[in-house]
Amino acid sequence: MMTSLIASHPKTQRLERLTALVNDALERTLPKAALPPQVVHEAMRYCVFPGGKRFRPLLCLGACEAVGAPARQALSAACAVELIHTYSLVHDDLPAMDNADERRGQPACHRKFGEGNAILVGDALLTLAFELLSRNGAPNSLAIIRRFGHACGTVGLIGGQVLDLQVISQPRTSTERTLRDIAQRKTAALISASVAAGALAGGAASGPPLKRLERYGQEIGLAFQLVDDVHDVEGLARVMGADQARSEAKRLITRAVRALEPFGKRAGILRQLADWLVAISAR
Ligand code: GRG
C-alpha cells in the first residue's frame, strides 16, 4: 500500500503557528458532528482531523504574505484547499479507485464509514470548499473560485485520475511521460492553485508577480510528487530511478526558490516550505 509522504518532519515555529491557525479555522468551518446528518458530519471531521501536513494551506498563506498582505487574509482560501485536497484523498482511496485501506494513519473513510458515506463525504467536502470561498470577503473571490474549479476539473485532478485509472488497468502505459502528466494534474495543479489563490486573496492582480508565484507553485508541486514517489518507491521514482528523481526534485526546488527573489523577505513562508521539502527529501 502506498503511504503518504513522511507524515511529520519538524516545521519551523512560524509554520507550526500557521498550521494551528488553519486547524482552528477548519474546526470552525466544518459542521459540528452532532448536526444531522451526523454520520456524514462525523466522517468529514474524521477525515480532516488530525489530518496531514497542511502543505497546501501553508502555501496559500505564504503566497498571500509574499504579495504584501497579512497571511490570515487568505485563511478561507487555505481552508478551502485543504477541504478539496481531503475530498480527493477520500475518493482516491475508494475501492473503484486506488482501493486503499488506510489514510493519514487510520482506516480510510470508506473502511470506517462505508463506501456510500465515503462518496458523500468527498462530495460534501468539495461542496463546502466552494461555499466557503463564495462567502469569503477577501479580494478576487471569483478569480479564486475559478482557479480552484480549473485545478479540480478535467484538466487537473479529474483528468489526472482518469489517466491514473488507465495506468492501473494497463500498467504498460506507465511511461515516464504519462506519469509526469499524472503528477502535473493530480499534484502540481492543486499545489500551484493554492499558491495562486493565496496571492489573489492578498490582492494580487494578474501580471508578472502572480506568474512568478505560479511558477514557484508548479515547480514545488512537481518536486513534491517526485519526493513522495522516492519515499514510496513508486511512480516516477520507479521509472527514472530514485537518484535521478531526487536530484530533479532538488533542481526544481532551487528554481522555485529563485522565482521568489523579487519578493524579498515577504516570501519567507514560501522559502521555509521549500526548505522543509528539501529536508524531507534528504531523509
Ligand atoms: C477526485 C478521485 C479523485 C481523485 C483526484 C489528487 C487525486 C486525484 C488524488 C489524491 C491522491 C494522491 C495520492 C495524490 C497524489 C498527490 C499526493 C502526494 C497526495 C498526498 O498529499 P500529502 O502528502 O497528504 O500532502 P497529507 O495527508 O499530508 O495532506
SSE diagram, text form:
Layout: H1 13-29, H2 38-48, H3 55-66, H4 75-92, E1 102-103, E2 106-107, H5 109-113, H6 115-134, H7 141-152, H8 157-169, H9 176-201, H10 208-232, H11 235-240, H12 242-258, H13 268-281
Antiparallel strand pairs: 1-2
The site of geranylgeranyl diphosphate (GRG) has 20 residues, from helix 4, helix 8, helix 9 and helix 10.
Describe this structure in words.
- It is a single chain.
- By secondary structure, this protein is mainly α.
- It has one domain (5-281): Farnesyl Diphosphate Synthase, CATH 1.10.600.
- 69% of the residues lie in helices and 1% in strands.
- The protein is built from 13 helices and two strands.
- The longest helix has 26 residues, at 176-201.
- Bound molecules: geranylgeranyl diphosphate.
- The site of geranylgeranyl diphosphate (GRG) has 20 residues, from helix 4, helix 8, helix 9 and helix 10.
What descriptive keywords fit this protein?
283 residues, mainly alpha, Farnesyl Diphosphate Synthase, two-stranded antiparallel ribbon, 1% strand, globular, binds geranylgeranyl diphosphate
The counted number of beta strands is 2
- Alpha plus pi helix count: 13
Largest sheet, in brief, is: 2 strands, antiparallel
Q: SSE string, helix = H, strand = E? A: HHHHEEHHHHHHHHH
Task: Tell me the domain tally.
Answer: 1
User: Which geometry do the CA atoms define?
Assistant: globular
What is the residue-mean pLDDT, rounded to a whole number?
94
CATH architecture: Orthogonal Bundle
